[in-house]
């Protein structure tokens, strides 16, 4: 080693961890959101006013051994299709998932949620109404059976949050699940001047937005936790949705949470 190199190392090696502050901030975020990946952590640091490159965040998380593994779990997909028991609506969304207006394009679906410390053989059902503008969850429901009433409950909660003076109609997209073919569901949409849209049969990509959200929900809300009862899974999901809507940053939203992004967008259009 060159003498000058040795002298430089000795001079600058003061035993102080220059990343200590960053490590503390990253660890604090991971305590609140243990399933968060390095990009989500980076966005949250930026929201907190800390300017740090995502590559550095990745390096530190590797050093600390806190990289997320939650997304490696693959669950089984639930299908609510029971054949043609009612009216099948046209696919008016047609995979045009983008919208620049809140409440203009909503999507919904039903998925299984499982619990049980070892086998995870116990199951219930989760449904929600998702706004494609911001990714905000406008209404959701968790139940032991995927009934029509169960899906209507989530829709009713969402409708109460949609302003009556939008100036445009709301489209609600779903798959061809039996719940969405019923007169109860379709009449509820008509009564609220909403447009119904359905995916094509056995074409999950027509509702890829919802599939992606369900994977995110399960990965972050409870896959990495010990869930023993239906009450436990309900509590875990409810806490996560509150965090997701109001505090979880999303890169495609400029590092904002769904609610903050919507509020900023609506303020700019006023």
UniProtKB/TrEMBL annotation:
Q: Which InterPro entries match?
A: HTH-like_dom, Integrase_cat-core, RNaseH-like_sf, RNaseH_sf, Transpos_IS3, Transposase_IS3/IS150/IS904
Q: Which domain of life is it from?
A: Bacteria
Q: Which SUPFAM superfamilies match?
A: Ribonuclease H-like
**What are the residue boundaries of the Integrase catalytic domain, all occurrences included?**
98-266
Gene3D superfamilies to which the protein is assigned, alphabetical:
Ribonuclease H-like superfamily/Ribonuclease H
Describe the task this protein carries out. Answer: Involved in the transposition of the insertion sequence.
What is the recorded name of this protein? Answer: IS3 family transposase ISLsa2
UniProt source species:
Periweissella ghanensis
